[in-house]
């Protein structure tokens, strides 16, 4: 059922504490942890505790939790001290956009120049 933890989902397991991760923040609705393959000096993932396959489906079903992810992304940027220099929040949606774990999540990237366009 939508929103419920999936037994085969890595991020559901991280949110449940079943798989280790370097957690940097937690709230009632989100978990933020360091990416294992960082693309910038600061690279933190912010995930919802509920399971939806991508940001679009999360936003459609539970917009308040989607907003929680954005708020926490800003808090992560402040905690990591990249908010004053600029940071990027990225939601990859679908395999063609580079999504590899199909649990909605935001990447918070900072600590280096981030060129435009990305990719």
How would you characterize the overall build of this protein?
The protein is α+β, with helices and mostly antiparallel strands. The chain is 25% helix and 21% strand. It is built from three helices and five strands; from the N terminus they run αβββααββ. It has helices spanning 10-15, 55-61, 63-79, and strands at 23-26, 30-34, 42-48, 87-90, 106-110. It is globular, with a radius of gyration of 14 Å.
Give the helix/strand layout.
Layout: H1 10-15, E1 23-26, E2 30-34, E3 42-48, H2 55-61, H3 63-79, E4 87-90, E5 106-110
Antiparallel strand pairs: 1-2, 2-3, 3-5, 4-5
Helix pairs in contact: 2-3
Quick summary:
The chain is built from three helices and five strands. With 119 residues, the chain is α+β, with helices and mostly antiparallel strands. Helix 2 crosses helix 3.
